[in-house]
Amino acid sequence: MNNRLKGTGVAVITPFLPDGKIDFASLGKLVEDYIANGVDYLVTVCTTSETPTLSEEEKDEVVNCIVRVNAGRVAIVRGLGGPNTMELVHQLQTRDFTGVDALLSVTPFYNRPSQEGVYQHYKLLAENSPLPIILYNVPGRTGCNIDAATTLRLANDFPNIVAVKEASGMMNQIMKIIAHKPAGFSVISGDDALTLPLLAAGVDGVISVIANAFPKEMSTMVRLARNNQFAEARQIHLRLLDYIQACFREGSPCGIKALMSLQGKIQNNLRLPQVPASEALIETFKNLLAEK
After folding, report:
1. CB neighbours of 203 closer than 8 A, spacing ≥ 6?
2. Contact 74, 96 (CB under 8 A)
3. Of 4, 61, 217, 285, which has the highest C-beta tally within 10 A?
């Protein structure tokens, strides 16, 4: 299973219609686009999916749509995390995960547990999960960092904790995990802009936002770098860098949705509290696309 979680995973956006309902027709087309352009796996109901604004029923509908269109061609990772440990255990015990290959579980947010609290949280999830778990460390959003020592402790203690998506931006922390991780445990970049240098340091791939707009380019860059063809990979990285930086200027998925709407892939609709990109950011994307 872990080999299917190497390379490029795309953090799938949730397209909406003007009335706020989910645009399942566009979602299906996106899945086909990702797969046709070489993405290795799909990550759904995650941060980029605007998951906090989706009901539990809508989350299941989104996952079921992706599973149906994918038809087993690539691995699917489902987001399942939060600050209520026992509620997550209940979901692990009762939810239908048909068609899902692994779970991406973000650290408890807002309540800011100690490192021992983080460990005990994931220990209970691992003991109750029917699927492999990817830890998701994004302290800029959660206010809770998983220290390298805690990640390594979890990786060594629980064989079904198979990877960490590291979006801390802390290069020393990430490299320490790479240096000391057990065999078979994957380290995944959670930051598009840092993916190339992290690939040079030894990560196994990326869960990418920019791959929504440029699945072929991002998956090719990762594949080249993992094959030690860094000169060629660097060219793609530098071409994408302005897009990546612009995508996060006003928050995610605001930026990536604006870019994808200009590409004709989706309508530029979000759910509050997210709002569409400013005219200035849209103009930036138009200029970048004109130069491409």
Report:
1. 166, 174, 178, 186, 187, 188, 189, 195
2. no
3. 285
For 139, the 3-state DSSP assignment is helix
DSSP state of 46: S
Which residue in 84, 230, 254 sits closest to 222, CA to CA?
230
Query: Is 41 tagged catalytic?
Result: no
Please confirm, yes or no, whether 119 is among the known catalytic residues: no
Q: What is the per-residue pLDDT across 145-162, written as a single tens digit (0 to 9) for each?
A: 999 999 999 999 999 999
User: In this structure, are residues 42 and 207 in contact, taking their beta carbons and an 8 Å threshold?
Assistant: no
Provide the whole-model pTM.
0.97
Are 108 and 82 in contact by the 8 Å Cβ rule? The answer is yes
Q: Which of 34, 119, 136, 243 is catalytic?
A: 136
- Taking only the tens place, the pLDDT of each residue in 218-253 is 999 999 999 999 999 999 999 999 999 999 999 999
